[in-house]
Design brief:
Strand order of the largest sheet: 1-19-18-17-16-15-14
Number of helices: 0
Oligomer: single chain
Helix content: under 10%
Order of helices and strands: EEEEEEEEEEEEEEEEEEE
Distance between the termini: 5 Å
Strand content: over 45%
Largest sheet: 7 strands, antiparallel
Radius of gyration: 17 Å
Length: 221
């Protein structure tokens, strides 16, 4: 996997201007940490904050329609079908039924804060990461099917590779680690000058994007 573009920055000269904001709503006494659009219901947006609140929003008309507890650091809808919402709070990743808000399961074997997680493209598996471990979960069996230790390194972010289903991309401190789950082998690539804080992948192009505290975004394929 090689870098195909780097140092993409958003500045005050970006395409978005203050007057382009369609809606703005201050609703929390705490910071908003994550948000995600539903893959099918295009008018449904979800957010979570530092007070452990998850909120569902209708886009048109813009309004908060539901509030419940269970997410602090990250929320993501299940890809494609969107039946489930995954949310991270402390050392737990919980699954919620999108229609009822009912918590149907919680993955609890991390001993540290879960800072990041990612669905695979099918929505059948979920990978969660704390600073010193990665765990891969089956949504069907609700079991941890694989895990890896950082072995002294620090993990910060995670994504399933869009083209290779058994390959996980792990964002560390200045590096990307490619973990082949089928062979239980990994390869480390130099990537950034600081913490790799987030990862995203495109199943259409096969490209993985990484962003870092070094003020850059890089694209990899």
């Amino acid at each position: 996997m090689g870098c195909i573009s780097s140092s993409l920055c958003i500045t005050n000269n970006s395409l978005f201007q203050p007057e382009d904001c369609l809606h703005a709503y201050s609703y929390h006494d705490s910071y908003t940490s994550s948000l995600d659009y539903h893959p099918k219901k295009t008018d449904l947006l979800c957010s979570c904050n530092g007070a452990n609140e998850i909120r569902y929003w209708h886009i048109d008309p813009f309004s908060c329609v539901r509030i419940f507890k269970g997410g602090t650091t990250r929320v993501r809808f299940q890809p494609r079908i969107g039946h489930l919402l995954a949310a991270a709070n402390e050392n737990v990743v919980s699954l919620f039924d999108v229609e009822t808000d009912k918590q149907i399961h919680s993955f609890q074997s991390h001993s540290e804060l879960v800072g990041h997680f990612s669905w695979d493209e099918t929505g059948d598996y979920l990978a969660s990461v704390s600073q010193h471990s990665v765990k891969v979960w089956s949504i069907t069996s609700r079991a941890c099917i694989q895990e890896i230790s950082s072995k002294g390194k620090l993990f910060n972010s995670i994504a399933f590779h869009p083209s290779y289903l058994t390959l996980l991309v792990l964002g560390g401190t200045r590096t990307l680690e490619l973990w082949d789950m089928a062979k239980n082998k990994s390869n480390i690539l130099p990537a950034h000058e600081s913490i790799v804080s987030d990862l995203a992948q495109s199943p259409v192009t096969g490209v993985v994007a990484s962003t870092s505290h070094d003020f850059s975004v890089k694209l990899w394929k």
